[in-house]
Amino acid sequence: MQLHDNLPNDQVTTKPIQPGNEISKRSPAPTNTSTEELGTLLSDIASEQLHWLWEKRIPRGKLITLDGDPGLGKSLLTLDLAARITTGRPMPDGTPGVKGSVILIAPEDAATDTIKPRVEAAGGDPSNIRLLNLVKSTSPRTGETFLSPFTLSEHFYTLIQTINQTLPALVIIDPLMTVLGSGIHASHDQKIRNTFSLLAHMAQRTNCTVLIVRHLNKGNSENPLYRGGGSIGIIALARAGLLVVQHPSDENKRLLVAIKNNLTEKASNLTYQVIANADGIPSIQWLGTNHYSVASLLRGSTPSPLSDKISSRACKHRAVHFDLKNWPNRQVKTIRA
Question: Is residue 149 part of a domain?
Fold first, then answer.
């Protein structure tokens, strides 16, 4: 496409694109365009302070990923986080919590015998958690109303409407591959980016964090950013990413690792284990910080032994956790997820 009239190289000048050329055939030339349609001056935008659901790990109003292999307690970890938000309790490292409501999309677990008991075992308030596993649908042929499983490909705007009406602090999608639906292929980068760009815009506008749970792929990359399932566009759009891995020397422990943070420095790794109360309901017990290398954890090798350290804030929180559940007077045992 020529935007000049065959001028010498040192005299080439640009001029407005006229109707009839290659671009204008695809996009008609605007007429009487207002300044608002030409973008926004940065000087006209009011600066805002960044806020956190969990300091240095989970920012408010952003997309976040939580990746890990099955059986390591990812879903249980999300319910621990949800329980804290519904009551405003501190985060596992002792940093201040935020009180709010939660939208939970978790179709792989039963609400009656799994989700609700685990939220209660974690000290959460079930009245502040809205389950969105099923949505009402109407048959275009018969007009009959029925319940169908929630999927992003079919019910994306139902989620947007629910967020706008309830203004939650957190939305949990667990796991992504089940919730995507047949209309969105996880590896279709352009479609994934389009869908999650809309989700990110909504999160920013409503100050609602969207936490996306994914399984690891079968690759062997030591870079954790390439190990989450689906398109690379998912972690690209996420502003922070977390990874759950097996503890290298203790089969009963897991590690929560910050693998991405576009907004501040990465937080230290945390150690946790899954325990059960006297009724057999599992919950997360946080054990403090650790300093293992992410690459070595993904390789499955044992890093150089560095002792896990329990910070004073984590110890203090642990005492509060057990007091809330009255577990000092009950039998507590460690279980494998």
Answer: yes
Instruction: Tell me the β-bridge partners of 209.
Output: 170
What's the number of domains the chain is made of? 1
Q: Is residue 93 part of a domain?
A: yes
Each residue of 23-59: pLDDT tens digit? 445 556 556 666 667 899 999 999 999 999 999 999 9
CATH value at residue 179: 3.40.50.300
Please give the residue range of the domain that contains residue 161: 54-299+308-334
For residue 175, whether the previous peptide bond is cis, meaning omega lies within 30 degrees of 0, is yes
Q: What letter represents residue 281's amino acid?
A: I
- How many Å apart are CA 161 and CA 171, to the nearest integer? 13
pTM: 0.79
Asked if 86 and 268 count as a contact pair (C-beta separation under 8 A), the reply is no
In a 3-state reduction of DSSP, which class is residue 256?
strand
For CA atoms 59, 309, 332, 67, give the dihedral sign.
positive
Q: Which two three-digit tokens encode residue 155?
A: 């019910």
Strands 269-276 and 253-261: antiparallel
pLDDT tens-digit map of 297-329: 887 634 444 444 444 444 444 433 433 333 334
